[in-house]
Amino acid sequence: MKANQAAWPIATMARLLEVSASGFYAWLERAPSKRACSDADLLARIRAIHAESRGTYGMPRIHAELVEQGIHVGRKRVARLMRLAGLCGVSRRRWISTARRRPDARPAPDLVQRHFSADAPNRLWVADATYVPTAEGFLYLAVVLDVFGRRIVGWAMSDHLYTELMLRALDMALVQRRPAGVIHHSDQGCPIHVHCLRPPLPRGWRASVDGDGGGLLRQGLRFTLHLLAAIGNDVGMATSAG
């Protein structure tokens, strides 16, 4: 009745629903229950956490964040309130390996040892992958970055997490730069180490893999930000696209 009182007279709706109009008005004046107030406060906190995660957190991570904040609440209650508010998270799908690992491939050494610097172009390339939120969902981004000047030399995007994404990014870099020799460094958390899946790297190249799997993006090489900046720079984008 409350939702439709602007379109229909209260007396008419009360008669059709076989309830009293006075009972409806008494309900309107009644103060919200403690449970309703508690739910409203909790939902506000849930919305804040969900917004801070840019819409990526689902019920388990929001519940964990609430507990960390000292708010002890059941998982079912969090799920119920999120469902009522239409809030949901984003499932981070695993990388899908669609290429065969060469049987003779061996793990590459860590030639970089976290020293992400180079004294000239095409000395050290770093590869990694992440995801980019968009208005229509998430796109998955693979990037090859020349550490000298922090310039993106190859990239590829897709709405699926397939290993070919990394190979496409490397192929773009090869076409763009055609270096005689370079250290190609990737993270243990990267979906693939391209030197294990494709034919041997070009002559003079050396493969390197992060020794502790610390995550290159977390070490300050924020490839996504560099790419988004390049998108707004016609010269940079043209160079990256080859």
TrEMBL record:
InterPro entries, per the entry: HTH-like_dom (IPR025948), Integrase_cat-core (IPR001584), RNaseH-like_sf (IPR012337), RNaseH_sf (IPR036397), Transpos_IS3 (IPR048020), Transposase_IS3/IS150/IS904 (IPR050900)
Domain called Integrase catalytic: residue spans: 117-189
GO molecular function annotations of the record: nucleic acid binding
GO annotation (BP), single: DNA integration
NCBIfam families linked to this entry: transpos_IS3 (NF033516)
Entry protein name: Integrase catalytic domain-containing protein
